[in-house]
């Protein structure tokens, strides 16, 4: 038998998290996680479950009864939505315009769906005309799109047009709102979205572990009328309905402390007001955008579909993205990230989400980038970037 490992006290570094997630966690959320644990069927926790569901409805802008936190990361909520609404033999229409559209397609394939694609370049939204053509050709049963594509920094515009097209063909619509919920305008009911999933660690600034999901009556009707059980027992929404619905019957042990955290994060959303929160993200991220554009860098998406919560900043000539990322981490304890997929090496992904969407954080990002570019020999106008950020914040 080996000796007991000699492991010291946990002491992670104090980072400023301005990458694509996780985002900085509000102190109130951390405090909520440290409150006493109770059982997952304790009457007091049942009350907390009810409150969390009501707060989620507010953030999603929905009256959907079936609105829950899935026990797991955002990918668990994603798989719960796709795996329950896609039956073997269903045709699933997925986008090609980003990394997470590809993940939608893969999850639908594993659920037994026949996957077809609607094309758009990386960094651009889907064109409703192309979606209409895809429906005419393939007659899909389920249509998935990414509202805020974390890999490209592009926001899907014209969402009601897309959902109208799908509903005209009696298809259900699933929206990936992982990087938009709580930070970018999202109106599930008004826009006709049948199911939406998200992650807590983005614009809600909550540790991962309990992930938002909402389904309307049409979506739940399909879940409850399936001829074949979903392939995942753990994520079977017909079983989870017994736990999160009126019965409160045991299904699994919920991550109680993560639900505490999500509830407190959502309380912060409600206290700020959802519309005011959307406006704050756009305003503060706008100062970051002004700064990098003044440096001469530019962003990957066009202004019409710029995503305030995730800024895909182009890497300047003369430097490698990894060298810049390492520099700001080593010198500033600042986390930003590189591109994914087709944009790998071409962009930095800089989040401006939740508790991270504050003036001092975007000022730090621009200053740290200016220093890194100067040290690594990139030909950018660092002074102009800093001045533009300061001016944009001053005007606020």
TrEMBL record:
Matching SUPFAM superfamilies: PLP-dependent transferases
Family recorded in the similarity comment = Belongs to the class-V pyridoxal-phosphate-dependent aminotransferase family.
Q: Which UniProt keywords apply?
A: Aminotransferase, Pyridoxal phosphate, Transferase
Cofactor (UniProt):
pyridoxal 5'-phosphate
What are the start and end residues of every segment in region (Disordered)?
1-26
Give one GO molecular function term.
Answer: L-serine-pyruvate transaminase activity
**Protein name (database record):** Pyridoxal phosphate-dependent aminotransferase
Which PANTHER family does the record associate with it? Answer: ALANINE--GLYOXYLATE AMINOTRANSFERASE (PTHR21152:SF40), AMINOTRANSFERASE CLASS V (PTHR21152)
The answer to whether keyword DNA-binding applies is no
Q: Which top-level enzyme class is recorded in the Swiss-Prot or TrEMBL entry?
A: transferase
In which organism is this protein found? Answer: Halobacterium hubeiense
